[in-house]
Design brief:
homodimer; 235 residues; alpha/beta; Rossmann fold; five-stranded parallel sheet; 35% helix; 10% strand; globular
Chain lengths: 235, 235
């Protein structure tokens, strides 16, 4: 039987590696899509390439887009990434690491590629629980995007393909995501979540993303394979 | 009084040059956004730069994105651009020059820039009458995009800015667009519409876009300032 093609957004982080494993388990022929968007944490992309290779997927395409020209985010501009001691210290509201319209741009490229691949399935690792306050990670946003997408394309209009955006992690805690990934054989040592890693890729351990990741491993009672720049495991 | 900022998608064609003039007449401080997306008609971008300079706009940004990696369109891939004798010969349905998700991608970058500029206004020259069968030029698509965009951004969620996508040409014929542009002082000799121009930028006169443009000038009873590679004005 021919497997149905799907486009999987692959950041190199813990979440998207898990999404890829879930999509493969559901029987999809996965094609990975990553972006070089001026992020300060380029080791994310190396992680995405490692994850794609380990999962033996169809194709892995890295699209070059430069969001720095628009400025406005600590992830791409010259603004310091905030650090905290524990996940309980994370602020409310939308953080400064928010990149304007990032998921909208990423999904738009996924939509274009899906149409060319004659695929009606896009996977993205957004999450409504540990979502850090990003508006473009919420279920109502994803639903609105699907609706728009099905009016946008030749495939949607001709009724050949109704695009579906799969968000298997939407309602999962970080601990549940890690538990599911480990069941599916994901090697999280390959992934990179840190917003402000060292030259060698070691994670800072104290940015929002590191704190959520650490908390997830702790709550899942699974040993954290991440290399940190400081001894975050010290009591 | 400070003028409100707006992002204007600027292709270098007749339509977007008219949209820019309309946005300026409405009092917006316009910022032009163009894309180098692997199109075979790069002289479009030179036209966009000429139009932006002549209109003396705030900024003109050209974003590099390579849609060729996804293939699938006569405008970007190695497929011959169809030619016809007159506009009456244009086929029904969605043409081969359709680029997957193009407007969705373009609007997503406009959305990102608008948020950084603290702008809630994006202008795009889509048209439902002379739209050549592109699904992402229809009013229902634009409405769905606006809805999605207002769920996507920090500005939308915080209620600071409700994004509005302005489509002033939506219900106008090509002749009406040209008439309006001439009233506003647009110099259409600066613009480039051809899908398959010669090296020197001269228009082929027979692709879908040239035929619609020629018909527009004829119906508006305005002299066509376009340079064509053949004598399209011969009886």
């Amino acid at each position: 039987m021919t497997r149905r093609p799907a486009v999987v957004l692959l950041s190199g982080g813990l979440d998207s590696a898990t999404v890829l494993a879930i999509a493969q388990e559901q029987g999809f022929e996965c094609h990975g899509l990553s972006f070089r968007y001026g992020q300060r944490h380029l080791c994310e992309l190396e992680a995405a390439t490692r994850v794609a290779a380990a999962a033996n997927i169809g194709q892995h395409v890295v699209v070059d887009i430069d969001l720095r020209m628009f400025g406005g985010s600590a992830l791409t501009a010259d603004i310091e990434v905030p650090k905290h001691q524990t996940a309980d210290d994370l602020g409310d509201g939308i953080p400064i690491t928010y990149v304007p319209a990032r998921n909208t741009i990423f999904l738009s490229f996924a939509l274009a590629w899906a149409e060319v691949l004659r695929s009606s399935d896009v996977f993205i690792g957004v999450n409504a629980l540990d979502y850090s306050g990003y508006p473009d990670c919420r279920p109502e946003y994803i639903t609105a995007y699907e609706h728009m997408a099905n009016l946008a394309t030749k495939a949607g209009v001709e009724g050949r393909q109704r695009l579906q955006i799969h968000t298997p992690l939407m309602e999962m805690t970080k601990a549940q995501i890690i538990t599911r990934g480990v069941e599916l054989g994901v090697d999280y040592a390959m992934t990179s979540s840190c917003y402000d890693p060292a030259e060698d890729g070691a994670a800072c351990g104290h940015c929002d993303s590191c704190l959520l990741r650490r908390k997830g491993f702790t709550e899942a009672s699974i040993a954290d394979p991440t290399t940190y720049t400081t001894d975050v495991f010290a009591p």
